[in-house]
Amino acid sequence: MSGTSASMTGKASPLGEEIVSRINRLAAISETADNLTRIFLTSEHRAAADLIMGWMGDAGMRAHLDAIGNVCGRYEGQRPGLPCLMLGSHYDTVRDAGKWDGPLGLIAAISCIADLNKRGRRLPFAIEVTGFADEEGVRFASTLLGSRAVAGTFDERALASKDEAGISLREALVQFGLDPDQIGKAARRRGELLAYLELHIEQGPVLESRDLPVGVVTAIAGATRLSARLTGMAGHAGTVPMALRRDALAGSAECISAIEQSCRSGGDGLVGTVGTIHVAPGATNVIPGQAHFTIDIRAPTDTHRNRAVAEIVRQIEAITKRRSLELQLDVTHENRTVPCAHWLKAQVAEAVAAEGYPVFELPSGAGHDGMAMADIADVAMLFVRCRGGLSHHPDEHVEPADVEAGARVLLRLIENFRPRDAAQ
Ligand code: GLV
Ligand code: MN
Ligand code: MN
User: Fold this and answer.
1) Among 23, 36, 81, 243, which residue carries the largest CB count within 10 Å?
2) Cα–Cα distance measured from residue 289 to residue 93, given in angstroms and rounded to the nearest whole number
3) Separation of 397 CA from ligand 1 center, angstroms?
4) Is the pLDDT of residue 11 over 70?
5) Which helix (H) or strand (E) covers residue 174, if one does?
6) Best substitution site from 38, 140, 368, 371 to test ligand 1's pocket, by max atoms within 8 Å of Cβ?
7) What pTM, to 2 d.p., does this model score?
8) Is the peptide bond before 83 cis (omega within 30 degrees of 0)?
9) Nearest-angstrom CA–CA distance, 161 and 330
10) Which ligand 1 atom is at minimum distance from the Cα of 101?
């Protein structure tokens, strides 16, 4: 057992201190002065990429930006060109975000490599760190665009999708300085990766409730996202009797209640969220003729989620039909539940135990880049406790001692990593 003293005493050592200070520097790069919002392919996103590439260079890595905006760094092994252990997380944020969701895993990985580099330590495999460009899916309807490009599953049709300002993904990539026709080149081959490993804050309250700084992830829950567009008839708020209205917002409100009710009564672990709604024309004295809202549904198993999505679609269709509203309902994102690979999870657990912590397993309800990476590599995740389980919120917080604990486990894991064949 070693390396526990800093986290046990609550004091961060230089590894944790460096990570926390970089998290703070990255968090200062925001579209808004008073909170943290760093959306895919904005100029702040670009400034963040440059900062991260600088840190990769300082850690002895070769760094570049790929064609979707992922920041890619490589630390060679005992000889050049070896297959790699890939580490990573994302550097985009939600709106009014916390500073740890994504950056903690990315920066911790870079700091671990900086530590190896300082000691002149080369391993029998290369290590790559990827800062994924779009995990949150805030700007365009789809999500995991960065990791899907790396996994070779990027759907070219996404290039035509538009953000709220009407800018297409293709145009945004060009504005960022990238060539959308080169996205295929970001794809990696299965044989190039030995595994994909991600450290991330838990984003939920389970570790805190168990008084544990770290946890071993068993699986990443699948998700379905839908977009619903309801069209009725706009009109004068003072003259059209209630019975003669086709109010798209009132219809949406009924749909949203039905979604909430369905998820409340739909069994353990089923969750549904309507996170955005836009109404047109949008005036106090005009009946809303159009409404557009998004739906996010998750459940512990794919069967459970698929059943819930089918039921919700049935209810939305029934409500809109009864209210004579036109409905356009599209699935904008779908990911199956991804189990973490047993052999890799066992190595995460070994490193946790070797650092002196109880091994505790838990599933991830949140989505992660590992969901896309699972198409080309076995994946595993290490969770770090966050205060109150709060995430996607500006008060998201990780104690420095827990940053240290997570980073120490990650470093040990890297140094003791055995590829699948050697591990079995
Ligand atoms: C990403 O944070 C997600 O789970 O939506
Ligand atoms: Mn995240
Ligand atoms: Mn997130």
Assistant:
1) 36
2) 32
3) 17
4) no
5) helix 169-176
6) 368
7) 0.89
8) no
9) 13
10) 2
